[in-house]
Design a protein that fits this description.
heterodimer, A: 257 residues, alpha+beta, Ribosomal Protein S5, domain 2, six-stranded mixed sheet, four-stranded antiparallel sheet, B: 232 residues, five-stranded mixed sheet, 27% helix, 30% strand
Amino acid sequence: MEMNKEYIESLLTKNLRLDNRKFSEYRNITIETGISPKSALGSARVKLGETEVIAGIKMDAGTPYPDTPDDGAMMVNAELIPLASPKFESGAPGVDAIEMSRVVDRAIRESKAIDTKKLCIKKGEKVWLVFIDIYPINDAGNLFDAAYLAAISALKDTKMLKYDAKEDKVIYEKTTKSLPLLNLPIECTVVKINNAFLVDPSYEEEEAMDARLTVAVLEDNSICAMQKGGDQPLTAEETLKMIDIAIEKSKELRKKL
Amino acid sequence: MKYTKRLDGRKFEEARPIEAKVGVVKRADGSAMFRTGKTIAIAAVYGPRELHPSHLRNSEKGILRCNYNMMAFSTAQERVRPGPSRRSKEINLVMEKALLPVLDLSEFPNTVIDVFVELPQTDAGTRCAGINAAALALADAGLAMKDIISSISVGKVGDKIVADLSKEEEDFEGGATDIPVAIMPRTNKLTLLQLDGNVSKDELKEALEMAKKSCQEIYKIQVKALKEKYGA
């Protein structure tokens, strides 16, 4: 049964949520890495309550972009597969899946969390490409945060492939070498329903939300990426309040990694 | 070429370790996970629900629609390009044909029952694992079923008939034949039968006997998984 917006709003005026959480409380978070060890180079499963997302890493060697001849490259792909929700449909990734993958991508890219200089094989000719693929298994709300946690947990779990310089080809064999990672930001999504600000929305709450703000926070509390969503506008005060909440919660999420 | 000992040390008729679990996707109407060795299939069922586009509707009965997908990071080799392929489309079709004989969809005219099968990790036998998971998910969705469907790939590696080929065996340099089979365990009737390779009629007969036996074992595991969720 879909909960209606009025009911959720009436609860919020009494400081209540459908599942009795505090406004700033995440559901139970579990992170498991190495879930697809025989195929992916790194992988992770993240659960936020009943929401479940998995991510896996593949690498390949390819040509660098002309403007960054000695930098490896990274690609994020998310598919809202119809296995995970009655609302998702088959076919090429829709705009929601594209937004989700780009929000994950931007936090990792803008923070320069992957040390791309160390992914150079031969300047101007060959660099490592890192593919991050994200799939929801069950959408019970807040896929963004779950997807992001899964992506970075999978990156941390990643072991590089071998490269045969003589033969000039990739050998599909994991080494013991980890992916070169620097400071990883944490993404936290805050939603606004009426005058209430909530973290980790359930899917009923997402249906009822007016606005959403996803903030990528670095360890020094600086912000490296943001994305507003939802149909309603936010005032600057509201935005700053949501950022404060995100910064506060990012500390808690960081401990889970 | 002689195949004297299986690459992973199994007996020739021995399947890989199997695990089954019902109810793994909470938002789905029915769901299940089925693992054989390193191959993992997750299936979710949605429906009966409204069918789009409407020209596919059947006013006599509901239709079954399978959707098989290997995740991008699911093989030990290169990344799998996301999206449907000719191979996956054919697998959708044979999965539907494998599962339909146990379903009665005449109660649900104009609707669709969607079965989504996702594979996070693969090591051969994916369509069979997918069918086993899908059969459990259909049962979990509460659909009336005459029987379960149990599926396994049998075949020939070198000169030996074996059950549940691994990827390494499919790629055996001395040649391998892959025969994916699904049966209705109560009657042993076949609902899926494909073959890639080369076998004699006698070898095929032996392989099918082996498939029947293996499927009976899988059937027991499927029933156990359903009982774990629903009690005796």
